[in-house]
């Protein structure tokens, strides 16, 4: 079974609070099956998920930052506004079509260009 970064984070919380997945699901107001699907990446992280975790667990600042980072980088899609700029649209469509064909080295090169 594939476990995502969020799944590892939630497992760490369960261990810290001596809970199993079913107990955590109850604390968060979800079913165990739903929590399992979120942890394994089969379901998108719901918007209210962070609020429910913060309400149910006393996270420290480092844990909150880690959760924010995990949620931000776990979303399967993003919305980008092109401002109807033809060049922006062309660039984004090319990236969309070829992203999964790029090697890690090529992706790192694109990141360097964009980050500069």
What is the strand and helix layout of this fold?
Elements: H1 5-16, H2 21-28, H3 32-39, H4 49-56, H5 61-74, H6 86-98, H7 104-115
Describe this structure in words.
There is one protein chain. This protein has 116 residues and is mainly α. The chain has helices at residues 5-16, 21-28, 32-39, 49-56, 61-74, 86-98, 104-115. The longest helix is centred in the middle third of the chain and has 14 residues, at 61-74. It folds into two domains: 5-74, 434 Repressor (Amino-terminal Domain) (Orthogonal Bundle); 86-115, no CATH class. The N and C termini lie far apart (38 Å).
Quick overview:
This protein has 116 residues and is mainly α. The protein contains seven helices and no strands.
Radius of gyration: 18 Å
- List how many beta strands DSSP finds: 0
Low-confidence stretches: none
Per CATH, the architecture of the largest domain is Orthogonal Bundle
Kindly name the structural category. mainly alpha
Query: What is the name of the CATH class of the largest domain?
Result: Mainly Alpha
Number of domain modules: 2
Helix share of residues?
Answer: 55-70%
The CATH topology name of the largest domain reads 434 Repressor (Amino-terminal Domain)
State the helix count: 7
What is the percentage of strand-forming residues? under 5%
